[in-house]
């Protein structure tokens, strides 16, 4: 994808330079056209690269400065301002989309297990401190400092291998 984006940006750059060099437009400045072309290329690159607005901001600045340089070509000022604002809104939308895809906190593994509350499904007959729970779609063996009974609500406080350490939820609320 990056090679296609770079090829497209290069094509825009070349076409912009050809337009600036070969088109007989006496009132248009080649520098203004270059800046507008680079501004558009930077805005396209912003959509393809994960940089949270740095390149896009530069593209907007170049686009607006290029439009101001071309102001001698009798382009209306409100049109230049409008194009700058539209570009800024596009950049803002891209930044918001990029921020929504940022990594979120873990919801699985130890981070997802510790603190979870579940009910005891079975207690071992020979040891009332040990039992089984169903948590996150898996069957876990649990160990508690206090005796357990089926249906009791417990909170996971730690994990050692495949064994979860739990406390009764009423005991955990009292600071145990």
Descriptive key words:
176 residues; OB fold (Dihydrolipoamide Acetyltransferase, E2P); 6 helices; 2 domains; five-stranded mixed beta barrel
Could you characterize the architecture of this molecule?
The protein is an alpha+beta fold and 176 residues long. The chain folds into two domains: 2-100, no CATH class; 109-173, OB fold (Dihydrolipoamide Acetyltransferase, E2P) (Beta Barrel), CATH 2.40.50.140. It contains six helices and five strands. It has helices spanning 2-22, 30-48, 54-69, 77-100, 109-113, 169-173; strands at 117-123, 130-135, 138-144, 153-160, 163-168. Helix 3 packs antiparallel against helix 4 (77-100). The two termini are 55 Å apart.
Shape: rod-shaped
Largest sheet composition: 5 strands, mixed, barrel
Structural class: alpha+beta
Low-confidence regions: none
Radius of gyration: 31 Å
In N-to-C order, the SSE pattern is HHHHHEEEEEH
Q: How many DSSP helices?
A: 6
Strand content: 15-25%
The end-to-end span amounts to 55 Å
Helix content: 40-55%
Integer tally of domains: 2
How would you write the strand order of the largest sheet? Answer: 1-2-3-5-4
β-strand number: 5
Q: For the residues shown, what is the average pLDDT?
A: 75
Layout: helices, strands, pairs:
Elements: H1 2-22, H2 30-48, H3 54-69, H4 77-100, H5 109-113, E1 117-123, E2 130-135, E3 138-144, E4 153-160, E5 163-168, H6 169-173
Parallel strand pairs: 3-5
Antiparallel strand pairs: 1-2, 1-4, 2-3, 4-5
Helix pairs in contact: 1-2, 2-3, 3-4
């Amino acid at each position: 994808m990056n090679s296609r984006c770079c090829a497209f940006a290069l094509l825009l750059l070349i076409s912009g330079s050809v337009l600036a060099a070969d088109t007989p437009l006496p009132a248009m400045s080649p520098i203004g056209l270059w800046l507008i072309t680079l501004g558009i290329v930077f805005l396209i690159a912003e959509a393809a690269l994960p940089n949270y607005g740095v390149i896009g901001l530069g593209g907007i600045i170049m686009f607006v400065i290029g439009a101001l340089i071309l102001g001698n070509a009798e382009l209306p000022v409100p049109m230049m301002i409008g194009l700058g604002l539209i570009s800024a809104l596009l950049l803002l939308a891209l930044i918001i989309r990029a921020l929504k895809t940022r990594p979120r906190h873990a919801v699985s593994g130890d981070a997802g297990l510790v603190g979870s509350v579940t009910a005891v499904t079975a207690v071992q007959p020979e040891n009332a401190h040990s039992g089984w729970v169903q948590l996150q779609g898996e069957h876990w063996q649990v160990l508690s400092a206090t005796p357990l009974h089926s249906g009791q609500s417990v909170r996971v406080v730690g994990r050692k291998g495949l064994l979860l350490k739990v406390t009764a939820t009423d005991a955990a609320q009292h600071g145990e």
